[in-house]
């Protein structure tokens, strides 16, 4: 059982991501104060079956107040931003820097894997059609490279690349054991 912690600004889609992955559902205006702290999902990675615990940091959005306990025993971190809303992308740097100290595995020299995911690609498509400025794929890639993080773009609404995101992250969990 591995613990994956999701973080990022409020409303980027953390709860929706977990709901899509674990229940294959999407709810507009999901009430993120409902529900439990984490959901589990069993996935197959390269022929190996592993169980993931997905932890939502809802209500902890002001990163300075993040409970350390969320990250202390994390095996992987998934940082989300909303690619239709640039502010959440700008704020992602603060998130990476807040979380980085926890990516060092206690008592070892190894680091736990970090993935950056640009969510709401469906909304970006709509917004770009209207000529509105959104966060481009190459901008997300560049940021991830800077922090040695994995990168993916997702849509919790459409279900695009949600399973792929956790599978890619889980693939790295194997090698950090
Ligand atoms: P959280 O605060 O980060 O947990 O964000 P939520 O999961 O509560 O989502 C915030 C809002 O964005 C809700 O109204 C969701 O329905 C919506 N949302 C989440 N993911 C997506 C997505 O991929 N596409 C679109 N269009 N809306 C989304």
TrEMBL record:
Listed A to Z, the keywords are: GTP-binding, Nucleotide-binding
Q: Which Gene Ontology MF annotations are present?
A: GTP binding; GTPase activity
CDD domains assigned to the protein according to its UniProt record, in alphabetical order: Rab (cd00154)
Which Pfam families does the record match to this protein?
A: Ras
PROSITE patterns in UniProt: RAB, RAS, RHO
Concerning InterPro entries, the annotation shows: P-loop_NTPase, Rab, Small_GTP-bd, Small_GTPase
PANTHER family membership = RAS-RELATED PROTEIN RAB (PTHR47977)
Name of the protein: Uncharacterized protein
Which species does the entry assign this protein to? Capitella teleta (Polychaete worm)
């Amino acid at each position: 059982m591995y613990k994956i912690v999701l973080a990022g600004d409020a409303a980027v889609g953390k709860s929706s991501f977990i709901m899509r992955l674990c229940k294959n559902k999407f709810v507009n205006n999901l009430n993120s104060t409902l529900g439990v702290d984490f959901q589990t999902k069993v996935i197959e990675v390269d022929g190996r079956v592993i169980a993931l615990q997905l932890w939502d940091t809802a209500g902890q959005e002001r990163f300075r107040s993040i409970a350390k306990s969320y990250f202390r025993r994390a095996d992987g971190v998934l940082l989300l931003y909303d690619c239709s809303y640039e502010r959440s992308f700008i704020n992602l740097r603060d998130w990476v820097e807040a979380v980085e100290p926890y990516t060092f595995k206690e008592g070892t020299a190894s680091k736990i894997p970090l993935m950056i995911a640009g969510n709401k690609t469906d909304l970006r498509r709509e917004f770009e059609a209207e000529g509105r400025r959104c966060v481009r794929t190459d901008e997300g890639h560049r940021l991830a490279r800077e922090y040695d993080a994995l990168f993916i773009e997702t849509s919790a609404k459409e279900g695009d690349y949600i399973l792929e995101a956790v599978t890619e992250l889980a693939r790295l969990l194997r090698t950090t054991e």
